[in-house]
Here is the input.
Amino acid sequence: MTGTTIKVTLNGTTIVDGDVIEASKHGTMDGKNHPGLLRNKGHVGFLGHGDVVKFRNIQIKEL
Here is the structure.
C-alpha cells in the first residue's frame, strides 16, 4: 500500500489495483464501519471470511 492505493499480485498476476479512498467514498460494500480503513501502517492479515484458506511461500516487501 502506498498512500491510499493498494496493489496485490498473486503468482505474477495483479488481482487488485485500486485506491481505498475512491473505492469506499460511498461507504463499504458490507455497509459496516471499518475503523482501520485509513491506517497507513499496522498488521497484515490474511482472511478467508469464513472459508478455509492455506498459504505458503508468502513474500511481503516494503515499498
Observations:
- The chain has a mean pLDDT of 84.
- The longest strand covers residues 13-19.
- The longest helix spans residues 20-24.
- The beta strands are 5-10, 13-19.
